[in-house]
Specification:
Helix content is 69%, strand content 4%. It contains 13 helices and 4 strands. A hairpin with a 6-residue loop joins strand 3 and strand 4 (142-144). It is elongated and about 75 Å long. The protein starts with a helix and ends with a helix.
Length: 279
């Protein structure tokens, strides 16, 4: 078995084991999923990587791993193990960082999955192999890679703006840009050889990101209204509110200790006291 294939299998096994543990243990899943509050407020940066090895169910896991296996070998043979791993993990991180930026004011936003990394591998392959044909999603129809790239980016951009589904389009888009860019850094001549496919993907994606950086009001996500709709806060507001609420809970627990002693605390109160002492 070629060493390149072993690298892919190790990544797939890691995804399988990590995801399975997440399926079985909700506490493990919650501890390592991508979550805005946990990353920005509590500085749990490990989630930017660990969330990429968790999946919501077996179908989600199977689809990502099958896609990874289909594209990884050619890229490994072309660029080598080091660049491939940099593409995989760089795309995973790039996808989550874009999600973090877009959802930075939505503290309860969460996500999991290797899709950002897998998208990076797909689009790195599109950049590296001119004339490549890609299956049109799950259909047995193959189209030139630049057509696939155009359709994929258009769907991702629409998904980010419309918010009509639960798919992490932001991670897909960030992974796409990261994977293609890293691949080109290792083999820059492909920008001249395969510039049509590359520019068709990168130009609209980068233009969209520039737009939301300089005109963020065009990307309205969430709600600030009351009633049944969830209210979103910015991070500073949320952080300050959480600190106030935590302090109130601590004061009540300390007051109870002062009145009736430490042994009077319930297990939940003791756990809260221990949890707050860590922050």
């Amino acid at each position: 078995m070629a060493i390149q294939l072993i690298v892919v299998i190790i990544i797939m096994i890691a995804n399988l084991m990590y995801s399975y543990k997440g399926f079985k243990e909700k506490s493990f899943f919650d501890k390592y999923k991508f979550e805005i509050d946990s990353i920005l407020v509590y500085k749990e940066y490990i989630r930017l990587i660990s969330s990429g090895f968790l999946h919501v169910d077996w179908l989600h896991l199977l689809f990502n791993m099958m896609t990874l296996y289909a594209f990884a070998e050619s890229l490994l043979l072309s660029l080598g193990i080091g660049p491939f791993l940099l593409i995989y993990f760089g795309s995973l991180l790039g996808g989550n960082l874009l999600s973090l930026f877009i959802h930075k004011e939505h503290g309860d936003y969460s996500a999991v999955g290797a899709s950002g990394a897998v998208c990076g591998v797909i689009f790195a392959s599109i950049a590296m192999f001119p004339g490549m044909e890609v299956s049109l999603f799950i259909l047995p129809v193959f189209v030139p890679s630049w057509i696939f790239g155009l359709i994929f980016v258009a769907i991702s951009l629409y998904g980010v703006k419309s918010k009509q589904d639960n798919i992490g389009h932001e991670a897909h888009l960030g992974g796409t840009i990261s994977g293609m860019t890293i691949a080109l850094l290792f083999n820059p001549k492909m920008l001249l050889v395969n510039y049509i496919s590359i520019l068709i993907v990168l130009i609209p994606a980068l233009a969209f990101i520039s737009l939301i950086i300089y005109k963020p009001h065009l990307l309205i996500i969430g709600s600030t209204s009351s009633g049944n709709k969830k209210r979103y806060y910015n991070i500073d507001h949320l952080y300050n509110e959480q600190k106030v609420n935590q302090q109130k809970e601590i004061d009540l627990i300390l007051e109870k200790i002062g009145r009736t002693g430490m042994n009077s605390l319930s297990k939940k109160e003791k756990d809260k006291l221990e949890e707050y002492s860590k922050h």
